[in-house]
Each structure stands twice: as structure tokens, then as C-alpha cells.
Amino acid sequence: MAVLVVADHDNVQLKDNTHKTVTAAKALSDDVDILVAGQSIAGVAAQAAKIAGVRKVLTAESEALGQHIAEALSASIAPLMANYDAILVPATSVGKNFAPRVAAMLDVAPISEIVAVIDSNTFVRPIYAGNALETVQSSDAKKVITVRATAFKAAEEGGSAPIEAIDPGPGAPHTRFVSDEIVKSDRPELAGAKIVVSGGRALGSAEEFHRVIEPLADKLGAAVGASRAAVDAGYAPNDYQVGQTGKVVAPQLYVAIGISGAIQHLAGMKDSKVIVAINKDADAPIFQVADYGLVADYKTAIPELMAALTAAGK
Amino acid sequence: MKILVPVKRAIDSNVKARVRSDQTGVDLANVKMSMNPFCEIAVEEAVRLKEKGVVEEIVAVSVGPIQAQETIRTALAMGADRGILIQTDADPEPLEVAKLLKNVALAEAPRLILMGKQAIDGDNNAVGQMLSALLAWPQATFASRIEVDGDVVRVTREVDGGLQTLELDLPAVVTADLRLNEPRYASLPNIMKAKRKTIDIKSPDDYGGIGQGHLAVLKVTEPAKRVAGVKLENASDLVNRLKTEAGVL
Q1: Mean per-residue pLDDT, B37-53
Q2: Which residues on B lie below 8 Å from A130 (Cβ)?
Q3: Mean pLDDT (whole number) for B103-129
Q4: Whether A253 and B246 lie within 8 Å, measured CB to CB
Q5: Are the C-beta atoms of residues A75 and A100 closer than 8 Å to each other?
């Protein structure tokens, strides 16, 4: 049995989600190949080749692949599946976009956002916004799977797999890329950050969100997140959203400030190692999952926290 | 032009799903059911396109039990023109739903299929993408802005790291994300009017039938619960504990 992992990258940098998805793939088979589909991706392919235990790295290059267009990705990947028994894709906005297309083209049932591999046919995945876990057994000869990367450890580096270019496929004749508005930030990426500081509706405005959340995040070297309520209210951009319908994170430390803890937010962060909640409402549901709680108004608690961190040498 | 809006009857988003003690699934007996929230956003967007004069007819289609008529009726009350219920008590897998919808699309020939990005029960996030692949129509998922312009639709999508805008040739499949719009509440006159709109009750066999399932659900369990920790007095105690007890600073 051979498994294909599709790399998560931005044409420049290979993302850690790839390493984690390789770990999930290794639970299915020792024969794991990685596909890097993009444009000008020699550097990304070289990074992928370093992941330990990878058999080979395939590269497919075209403009549409570089723009992560789903039709182009699925058209280049589906024919490759003649050589593989399973394809594992990190459940990013790119992966979720194209993986079901590959499944439809192969006439198999996609298996979305797995968090555990039981055996080569059986997987665990969250349903109902993470309120239940479903164990499903697939009868398809070929599996198309997206992987919730936070549920798996990153594969080590130290390999030197050969790199092989393949046909990029026909592209996407009816879809044209218009523009990207990608937020540039020096902070770590939300999905893979070791520490996440998130703000909620209690912040009250975008200005307050910037003033309070960002300095604390920078002091901790953390990524910035937000609750859906804060994003809906326009306090933070959409890609900050942590939750079932946003990003799922599992950092070492998650600091929730002014977040009540709606089910859909908890679904996105409850696998964090340590959770800190700061909220003036002692009955907020967030305290039921928090390891450490401060029942306090953020307006006084955050300056005190900043001072305590400074005093502790942070 | 005509828009097709697939809608799903699902657990109400304000109800907490409870796992059945025999681990066969989530308990839906006597639980409030509603239109899946992402489907509601898709219906709202279709109605707004009609109000702008871009769209002439909105057809709402649902695959589900006879009660899914209520879900279609909600779409009609919001402003959809007619409905199709593909009635089945089976709970078809996303791939089978996509195949049924493909045949609906071929019969109805809409210029645009606008649907929710995922249902809040199965959380698969797959039907729109599969439908697009089966029809060989272009797709734009996770839409936060939709603009129809002649023979194309420009869609701004919520992606990791920000936004991406694509232009698709029509016909196309677009799936709605949370921030596309805020769905309206149907007014009483519109609810009354919706009662006179047509819902065609069809069988899956009218649209190619439902194939064999590919996935067997072995069990459904509750996720491990976190235990509430301690409430602390002040920030310095918190920093202390994060350093020494938790070891995360």
C-alpha cells in the first residue's frame, strides 16, 4: 500500500502541517510520497525531501497550481491516484477546497478532518462541531482523507528523498485568479503557534483589540486569534478566527481574553495543552475548560499580566 | 438567470448535540431541527441577487425526510420561488447527495448553484466541491462576497491567511461562508405567501437513485472532557504557575 501526502505550502515555505500529515500517513503505510503542487517550488520540494521516511517527492508546477486553484489541483492529482491506495491532505483552506473533488473524480467517499487512524480502513473524525467523535470504516479501495494536523505529531527531519517532476495537468480553464489579500505578519502562524493569545467580543472595538491583544501576544511570542463574535463584529480579520468553522489550534498555551467560550469556539481550541481564561464573568463557559482562570476585567488584568511577565523576565 | 440552492435540514445550531448512550449516533429524538445555518446564508444571498435583478428564479432543493419540506418552506418564505424535495429516510453520504444534486442541476439547468460550505451535523464540507467536480463546473468555496457580472461570477473567498478573489465562468458552484451576509427573518406575509408556493416531492430514483454507502459508522462517542482548573487571584500568581507548574513559559 502506498500513500500520497499533499504538501501544505505558500510556494516559498513548507508548512508544518505537512510533517504532521506525514505522521498520519505513516500509520497507514511505510511507503509515503509527498506531492508539492505549486509554482517555483524547488525550495519547498527540497524542504519536503528532508522529512524522514519519505520515499520520494513529486513536484507539479503551473501558474494555477501556484494559486492553489482547486480545479487545477484535483485535475493534476486524480490521475496520480492510479499509483496510490490513499491520499492524505492537511485540512487547510486549500486542502478542504480540492480534496472532495479528487474523491468525486475517483467515485469514493471523502473522509474529512480525521484526528486518529485506527487501521488502514478506519478513522476517527469530529462531527457536530466537535461535540461527538465518529469512528468510520471505509469500504473504498482508495481513500481520500483530510487530516486535522493538530491531532498528529510532526514527522522528524533527516531524510533525503529523491525529487521527481510530474505533469501539472490541464489547469483550470473556467476559473481565473483575480487577487489575494494575504495579511503579512511577523508573528507566528496561528495554526502551528506554540502560544496563542485570543480576544473576544468583550474587547468592544478593533482599536481595543489591537491595543490589548497584540502587545501581549508579542511579549509572549504568540500568534493572535479571535472568537467568531469578535470577527463578526469586525474587531479582528476573518483569518484570526479560532473555532469549528475557523481554525483549529492546539498550542502549548492558549490565552482566552474576554471570550465567553461558545461551543463552536471551544471546538477550535480545547485540545490546547494549557488554557488560560481571563473574563469578568465568573460563569462564562470558558472557565469549564480552562486550567487557570482569572475572574477579572481585561482592562485591569492585562496591564497586570504584562507587568508580571516583565517581572518574570519576559 | 436561475439559481439552485440546495438546503439541508439539520440540528438547530443552538442545541447541544448529545451522543446516544449506545454509541450509535447523536440523539435527534425530540430535538429542534432547522435549516443548516450555512444553507440559510446561501438562500439569503440568492434572494439578494434576485432583489438586485440579477436572478429571475430561485429553486430550493433538499434531500431528506418528509419534514425537510419545512426547511424548503423556510427558504420559500425568505424569497425562494419554488422547491424540490427528494424524499428519503436514508441518510445518504455526501457523495450520494452530490450525485442527486448533479442530476437536479442537469434537469433544472441553473446558471449558479449557491449552497452552504458545510452542514453543522456531519461537518464534511464536501458536497459543493464534489458537485462542482461531477458537473465539471468551476467552483469557489468559502465565499464572503459574490458579484455576478454577465457570464462570470467574482467570488471573494475566506482562506487561511486572508482572502482570495476568483472569477468563474458560469455556470458555477459557489459555497457560502459565515460572513457572506446576515440572513433575514421571514416576515409573516412572506410566510403566508410561501404556503402557496410549490414544492415538488420527488423520489431519489427520479434523479438517479442512491447508491451503496461507502462508509460504515462503527461508533459515535463523546470527546474526552477537560476538567475545569483553578481560579487564581491575580496575574503574578498566573505567571508563576505558567512558569513553574505548567512549564509553558
Answers
A1: 98
A2: 223
A3: 97
A4: yes
A5: no
Distances (CA, A) of A192 to A129, A257, A291, B230: 21, 20, 21, 27
Q: Is the pLDDT of residue A121 over 90?
A: yes
**Chain B interface test: which of A122, A128, A272 (most B C-beta within 10 Å):** A128
Contacts of B178 in chain A (CB under 8 A): 228, 232, 245
Is residue B154 within 8 angstroms of chain A, CB to CB? yes
Q: CB burial class (10 A; 0-12, 13-18, 19+) of residue B195?
A: exposed
In this complex, the residue of A138, A139, A182 whose CB is nearest that of residue B161 is A182
**Structure confidence at residue A186 as a pLDDT band (50, 70, 90):** confident
Confidence of residue B84 (pLDDT cuts 50, 70, 90): very high
For the segment B160-187, the average pLDDT, to the nearest whole number, is: 95
Distance from CA of B3 to the nearest CA of A (A): 19
The enclosing H or E element of B146 equals: strand B139-149
Judging by beta carbons within 10 Å of its beta carbon (0-12, 13-18, 19+), is residue B66 exposed, middle or buried? exposed
Distance from the Cα of B174 to chain A's closest Cα (Å) equals 11
Cα of B159 to nearest chain A Cα, Å: 5
- Residues whose CB is less than 8 angstroms from the CB of residue B154 and which lie 6 or more positions away in sequence, other chains included: A178, B145, B146, B147, B165, B166, B167, B168
For residue B214, list chain A residues with Cβ-Cβ distance below 8 A: 108-109, 138-140
> What is the distance between the alpha carbons of residues B162 and B176, in angstroms, rounded to a whole number?
16
Of chain A, the end-to-end C-alpha distance in Å amounts to 49
Identity of the residue in A127, A191, A288 whose CB atom sits nearest the CB atom of B121: A127
Do the Cβ atoms of B19 and A132 come within 8 Å? yes
CA distance A14 to A190: 15
* pTM of structure: 0.93
End-to-end, the C-alpha distance of chain B in Å comes to 58
Cβ-based contacts of A132 with chain B (< 8 Å):
17, 19, 26, 220-223
* DSSP state for residue B207 in the 8-state scheme: G
